Amino acid sequence: MRRLFLIATTGCIALGLVATTALSALAETSATRQSSGDAALRNTSTYDVEAQAAFISQGSAIGASSAELAAVRADVAEEESLPDYTQVVDNDTGGRFSAPGWQERSDGSGVGVGQVSHGGSYVGSGSTGQPAHFKVRIPTTNDYTVYAWWPAFSGSSEAARFGIDTAAGRRWTSVDQTRDGGIWIKLGTYAMKKGERTIQLSAGESVADAVAVVRGDVAMPPEDGTSTASSREATYSASSVSDPTPHDVVRVARRWMSTPYKWGTCTSSLMSCTCETKKTYRRFGYTLGMGETSQWRYNDGARRVRHKYNLRRGDEVFFKEHGPYNGITHVAVYSGNNNVVHASVYYGKVVESEMKWINGYYGAKRYRLN
């Protein structure tokens, strides 16, 4: 059974139950840290108190049984056993892109960064008109992660609508194209049937550059040509290091994807959630500890982000999965469009997934990069 259907099933079961304890063997923090909390912030009116949702929190797997975790990981392993498959369709891809009435434009960068096909030219719609279509080939019936790329500027739609042809029909998702541009942004993971499928982008001041489909529900995006080496420990290009951006933070975080999870461990081959953030922000001059609460309290001059709707790429996000009056249990890197990169107990490795499946948003930190 595909993981997407498993989530729906376990979610329905959970609606009839109240999760009262966490699996101590799977918790991201010890019982001592879970009970500590940050009273000063907890008592402020700006604290975003979320209702404890009736689903398995995919950070520290709060409420999950060992059988449920085994089923999820077996499903992911099954997908990983298949050959890698990625297809990128750009607005210049012959026979696979159409946008009647849309106008060709340029973001001023010339050819794509790192000689990738996207970047440089793109097309834009007016306030009305026909939708743009990206045609993709799905080689096997599976779960596929869909990414989109659009230019990094603020002159387009705040609610561009992508329609993805899935096994259950067309599914729509909206993105804010005034932000998050210039990097692959995850639209979501969808069960898709074998054959030719369409990803549609509605008009309405939208811009179309490229989409990508990658087999697997926790798959990495395509390479964007910005790194100088394949090693996960490698630094980035000189220009990236001397003038880093939030794009670079996300790219560094994504380089750890698929690294197996192990609580309290911080190596290149095994890591906990705090290790993933520690290694990511180290590239930008920050020396974080290995505790969730210590990373929150680290005196680094970072800006605190109270509300999750104000998040920006590269922010470090903190969660209290046991509720607002308990300790911080999970940390992650915000990657745009309500997704985070994090070392997940639920998946057993570093993944990029939707933040809504991690319970108890507490706050975030925005580190200065210059």
Name its key features.
370 residues, alpha+beta, 6-stranded antiparallel beta sheet, 5-stranded antiparallel beta sheet, 18 strands
Distance between the termini: 47 Å
Low-confidence stretches: 4-52, 110-116, 226-240
Strand content: 25-35%
pLDDT average, as an integer? 82
Total strand segments: 18
Helix count, DSSP H or I runs of 4 or more residues:
8
Strand order of the largest sheet: 13-18-14-15-16-17
H/E topology pattern: HHHHEEEEEEEEEEEEHHHHEEEEEE
Radius of gyration: 20 Å
Oligomer: single chain
General form: globular
Main sheet properties = 6 strands, antiparallel
**Structural class, from secondary structure content?**
alpha+beta
- The level of helicity is 10-25%
Describe, in plain words, how this protein is organized in 3D.
The chain has 370 residues and is α+β, with helices and mostly antiparallel strands. Helices cover 18% and strands 27% of the residues. The chain has a six-stranded antiparallel β-sheet with strand order 13-18-14-15-16-17. A five-stranded antiparallel β-sheet has the order 2-5-10-7-8, with no helix packed on it. Strand 15 and strand 16 form a beta hairpin. The protein is globular. The N and C termini lie far apart (47 Å). Residues 4-52, 110-116 and 226-240 have low confidence and may be disordered.
List the helices and strands and how they pair.
Blueprint: H1 3-14, H2 31-34, H3 39-42, H4 66-80, E1 86-90, E2 97-98, E3 103-106, E4 121-124, E5 132-138, E6 142-149, E7 160-166, E8 169-175, E9 185-192, E10 195-201, E11 207-208, E12 210-215, H5 238-242, H6 246-254, H7 273-282, H8 292-297, E13 303-305, E14 316-319, E15 330-336, E16 339-344, E17 349-354, E18 361-366
Antiparallel strand pairs: 1-12, 2-5, 3-4, 4-11, 5-10, 6-9, 6-12, 7-8, 7-10, 13-18, 14-15, 14-18, 15-16, 16-17
